[in-house]
Amino acid sequence: MVLLNNEVFLNELTKLFQNARTTGSVTVTMKRYDGRKTPNPKGGLAIPNPEYKCLMRAQCHSKKISTVIEQKDVETFTNAYSNLLKTSINGLKRLKKPKKKAMAAQ
Fold first, then answer.
1. Cα(74)–Cα(95) distance, integer angstroms
2. CATH top-level class for 1-36+50-74?
C-alpha cells in the first residue's frame, strides 16, 4: 500500500474512479489513527491524549493507496473529497435488493 500526500491521494483517487467507471469498483475506508505502527500491549501503558489522525484507504482491483489526514487539515480535505465524490459518482447503478419472502401464514 502506498502512503501518499493528501493532494496526491485525491488525484490518484480521481484516476481510480475514472478507471472503475468501465470495469470494477472502488472501495474507500476511513478510520481513526493515532500514528502508532504497533498495537498497545494489553497490560502496558497507553499514550495519554494522543493527537488522533484519520487514515484513509482506497482500493481498485490490485491498486491500493492511502493517506493520513492531520487534525488541522480535516476540513480542507473533507471539502475537496466531497467535491471529488460529487463529480465522480454520477453514473452509479441502483443495487437490486433481494425481495423478502412473504411472511408465512399464521
1. 31
2. alpha beta
pLDDT bin (cut points 50, 70, 90) of residue 54 is: very high
Please give the Cα distance from 61 to 68 (Å, whole number).
Answer: 21
- Please give the residue that has the higher pLDDT: either 67 or 88: 67
Give which of 68, 63, 73 is closest to 17, Cα–Cα. Answer: 63
Domain residue limits, the chain: 1-36+50-74
Q: Which long-range contacts (CB under 8 A, 24 or more apart) does 3-7 make?
A: 3/66, 3/67, 3/68, 4/65, 4/66, 4/67, 5/67, 6/67, 6/69, 6/73, 6/77, 6/80
